[in-house]
Amino acid sequence: MNFKDIEYFQQLVTEKNFTKVANFFQVSQPTVTYAIKRIEQELGVVLFIRDQSHHKVELTAAGKLFAHHATSLLTEWKLAKKELQQLSDEKIRFGLPPIIGNYFFHEFSQALLEEQLLNYLELVEGGSNELTKRLKAGRLDMGVVGSIHPLRDTHLISEVLMIRDFVIVVSPDHPLATRSSVSFHELAQEEFLLLNEHYIHPMALQAFATQAHINPLIRHQGQDLAILKSMIRANIGIGFLTELAIFKEDGLIQIPITDHDQPRFWVSLVRSHEAPESGIRTQLIDIIRSLLHEEKTV
């Protein structure tokens, strides 16, 4: 059954006149007449009684019953069209820091491709501090970010996915490279190469330093993780990173920190309270949980 035919039918119920319906839709009168005939033939009933003397039509009992269903059909059809249009237009502004992105983005992008969700994602890169601020301000819909404690904010919905340690990172040529562990107070004279304030690493470093009663020497701060690793490899200083940031192919040595009650790297799935729910967002959340949640360690 053609939905345009049902629209003609519904308007004819209101106007009770074929000419008025044709004028309303700016079509010829036979177009409306044939539409009604098609419905009647498909249903096997007569929907209207024609009153030729008064140039109007009246609903039959069958017509009244179908009119009730026609209203529901058109309402559902218009709603479906609207939701499908919103679905095709939907873009999820998704924040992902490079450290977390490098850790799981290959599997993440593959899963998005398989579920045909890749085109719905507008990826926004940045440090966790910067992305968390954007989430609070409503400039992002969702993200996976790091913090040094569980995120609690009235503007956000947060779910911890995994927890990892911070480590000292050095060149294989650095004197510390042979150490199996190190306490933070031993690093008072070392020069640190550090990610900048867009990331949570400066806060974590300061927490370690305060607890160890030292004033860390910062030689360089930047936001490019690849450059930072290159500088560490060149033995320009030592790095302070979450263990998630280091891969075997980096050619770097990571050294555990032995301090008690140390800050840790909390990875959370964070959503804005104002972001509307949708099937696509639910699918995206399920994918992220499947890739990261089972990795969670305490």
From TrEMBL:
Molecular function in Gene Ontology: DNA binding; DNA-binding transcription factor activity
One Gene Ontology cellular component: cytosol
UniProt keyword list: DNA-binding, Transcription, Transcription regulation
InterPro entries for the chain: HTH-type_LysR_regulators, LysR_HTH_N, LysR_subst-bd, WH-like_DNA-bd_sf, WH_DNA-bd_sf
Record flagged with keyword Transcription: yes
Domain HTH lysR-type: 1-60
Recorded family membership: Belongs to the LysR transcriptional regulatory family.
Protein's recorded name: HTH lysR-type domain-containing protein
Lineage: Bacteria, Bacillati, Bacillota, Bacilli, Lactobacillales
